[in-house]
C-alpha cells in the first residue's frame, strides 16, 4: 500500500479522527502514523491523549495497512456508539427469579436515550415507571458478566406488561 492509496481510502470511506504524519501528543481518541528515525510508528490515543498499542514498522506499506485497519475499526466503533446514543426506541431488560423451579420475570427495566444521556427506569405497576435510583441497570449494562439482568426485545417486554396486568408470572416465551 502506498500513501496515495491510503489517503484515497480515507476520503472515499469518510474516515475521521486521525493524525497523518503529524504530532499527536495532545490529540484524544485518534489513530496516528508517524515517521521515525528507524521507520514508521502507528498508535492510537485514548481520552487522555495517551498513546496506546504502539507498533513500529521498518517498511511503509505494512505501517499504512495497520494504520488504515485501525482507523476503520475506530470509526466503525464510533459510528456504532453514535447510533446507540441517538436511538429513540427504549431498550428493555429483565431480571428473572426462580419460582417453583421456573425462571419468571421479577423486574423489568427500560433505558431511554435523552439529550442529556440515558434514563433508566423500573416498572413498578401497570404503566408506572420509577427511576432506577440505585443504578441497578447501569451496573448491569457496564458489567454484563456480573449481572443477572438480560436485555430482551420490545415484544418480550410486551409479554411482561401483560403478565403485570394479569398478575400472573410465567416464563418468557420470547427474548
Structure description:
The protein contains 4 helices and 9 strands. By secondary structure, it is α+β, with helices and mostly antiparallel strands. It has 2 domains: 83 residues, no CATH class; 76 residues, no CATH class. It has a 5-stranded antiparallel beta sheet, sandwiched between helices. The longest helix is centred in the middle third of the chain and has 27 residues. The protein is elongated. The chain starts with a helix and ends in a 9-residue tail after the last helix. The mean pLDDT is 88.
Question: What features would you highlight for this structure?
Answer:
about 180 residues, alpha+beta, 2 domains, 5-stranded antiparallel β-sheet, 4-stranded mixed β-sheet, 4 helices, about 35% helix, elongated
